[in-house]
Specification:
The chain is α/β, with parallel strands linked by helices. The protein has 2 domains: about 170 residues, Rossmann fold (3-Layer(aba) Sandwich); about 100 residues, Rossmann fold. The chain has 9 helices and 10 strands. The chain has a 6-stranded mixed β-sheet, sandwiched between helices. Strands 5-4-3-6 form a 4-stranded parallel β-sheet. Strand 4, helix 4 and strand 5 form a beta-alpha-beta unit. About 40% of the residues are buried.
């Protein structure tokens, strides 16, 4: 069993880079800062390292034989979990939504090379599994495996995401991030200072993030906002307009973004600045949550 100190060193970086960028908005320059979680590690970095931290601690504490999780064929979570399994010598299985393709995606091929056992299930079965507390019971060979839900979006994931707040100086008044499961948003909301407003930019139409806020305190409402204006029709939906924005950003900045999470986030930041959404004296920090493992392939 690995020590808690070793796991903290593996998952939680001592420091995270903050980059600063000037954006031309309505003829004026506005500065934003970018918390570079993506720079922690190309696969396990971003918010995934924080979501997995407490989950892996729980795995060792409870003496499971391995870990099983679920996701799509481009899942950043599946990619990160497979890499963690390889690094820490943990048996990992991934239950993947959809029919097995003739040629696996880069994400799945990489996960296989890292030792992950891949099991494909039909989309209807996958939807049913989402409603189960522990889908492992349907697979006899995973009986003593720990189950981590889609995207690492459980309470252990939320607990791990609290650590992200330590990298955000108190001088920042507005924190923006992309929202899928909502685990990162909730973790931040439980740890940031109360004068800091958190704006979550939703990347999908489904209300997937709501379950992690079911028992939130009323004080959370005072400084957390969810914005649904930049989903572009739904999760991973194609948009030439968004693709054009991402392409131009990547040409002009040395910080890469992708169209599913960070592309929507940075587009939202630019639009909100153009709408004069923020006070003139606002200090804005944007969380780059990674997700670049499939972008270069």
């Amino acid at each position: 069993m690995l020590s808690a100190a070793y796991l903290e060193d593996y998952f939680i970086p001592k420091e995270v880079t903050i980059d600063h960028r000037w954006l031309d908005v309505n003829g004026k320059s506005r500065q934003i800062s970018i918390l570079r979680l993506d720079a922690i590690h190309p696969i396990t970095g971003g918010n995934k390292t924080f979501k997995l931290f407490e989950n892996i601690k729980q795995f060792y504490k409870n003496g499971f034989d391995g870990i099983v999780s679920v996701g799509g064929q481009y899942s950043n979570h599946i990619a990160a979990l497979a890499q963690v399994g390889k690094d820490l010598s943990i048996p990992i299985a991934g239950i993947i939504r959809g029919v097995e393709p003739d040629v696996p995606t880069h994400t799945i091929q990489q996960a296989k090379e890292n030792g992950m056992e891949i099991v494909y299930v039909a989309r209807e079965k996958y939807r049913q599994m989402r409603k189960q507390e522990n889908p492992c019971v349907d697979f006899s060979n995973f009986e003593n495996f720990m189950f981590i839900p889609e995207g690492g979006g459980n309470e252990l994931g939320v607990e791990g995401c609290k650590h992200i707040a330590q990298y955000i100086p108190s001088e920042y008044t507005h924190i923006l991030l992309a929202v899928g499961t909502g685990a990162t948003l909730k973790g931040l909301s439980l740890q940031t200072e109360r004068h800091q407003k958190i704006i979550g930019i939703k990347v999908l139409e489904a209300r997937q993030e709501e379950y992690v806020f079911e028992e939130r305190e009323s004080t959370v409402n005072e400084f957390v906002r969810l914005n649904s204006d930049f989903t572009f029709g739904g999760y991973a939906k194609k948009s030439p307009f968004l693709d054009d924005f991402v392409g131009k950003w990547n040409e002009n900045q040395n910080i890469l973004i992708e169209p599913i999470y960070t592309g929507r986030l940075f587009f939202a930041v630019q639009q909100l600045l153009q709408q004069d959404y923020f006070p003139e004296n606002a200090k804005i920090i944007v969380i780059h949550s990674g997700g670049m493992q499939y972008f270069d392939h």
